[in-house]
């Protein structure tokens, strides 16, 4: 009986007080391993936050190394702006090699900042007709007000999207949305490559002059507006000449003719 009691006491003393504090193969307890894993997860999250910086961010530290105004330049690619997520028909394979340059001028205005910039890019768009990729040069400009008062930002952000909140406790302002909006506005509504195999581009003459596209021009037509040099009266005279009727002289502008007709109808309307 005494031997059995000793064996039981020794087995009880060897067992850990808490089942979670069991030794692992490397000599550390399970609680220490869990703490190490939690710290590793925290470090990974911190690194992920650092990597998830905005593509075009204005850091407050960049505005303190010298007096205003400041000149900043961002050399990016089309992949950094993620224009494909905004509905732009863009060639994703060539986005990584398409340069985008943003030149930003920043000046201090009161407690906030005023910034205006220029964007120069060559975007790999996709033709809407033949679906062929082509490089489209884009030039755009934008301006943004970095407001330091959060209360004013809440009331003005709804009306003006070019106002970005930048209070004193914020270390970096994200200007990526302002730049992408300026690029989307500068893009053509219809993307045509004007290549030799694209029928829509050859017919529309995109990127070609009138002689290269095979158009015949007449000296009587205005090349800027597509209206005859003599206005609406010249157009009417040309149509009558084609129909075999003599062209009549213009009787003034269209507005004057309409006013004269209205003046002739007034007495009959008053009599009725």
TrEMBL record:
<feature type="compositionally biased region" description="Polar residues">
    <location>
        <begin position="26"/>
        <end position="37"/>
    </location>
</feature>
<feature type="region of interest" description="Disordered">
    <location>
        <begin position="1"/>
        <end position="58"/>
    </location>
</feature>
<feature type="compositionally biased region" description="Basic residues">
    <location>
        <begin position="42"/>
        <end position="53"/>
    </location>
</feature>
<dbReference type="Pfam" id="PF02620">
    <property type="entry name" value="YceD"/>
</dbReference>
<dbReference type="InterPro" id="IPR044985">
    <property type="entry name" value="YceD_plant"/>
</dbReference>
<protein>
    <recommendedName>
        <fullName>DUF177 domain-containing protein</fullName>
    </recommendedName>
</protein>
<dbReference type="InterPro" id="IPR003772">
    <property type="entry name" value="YceD"/>
</dbReference>
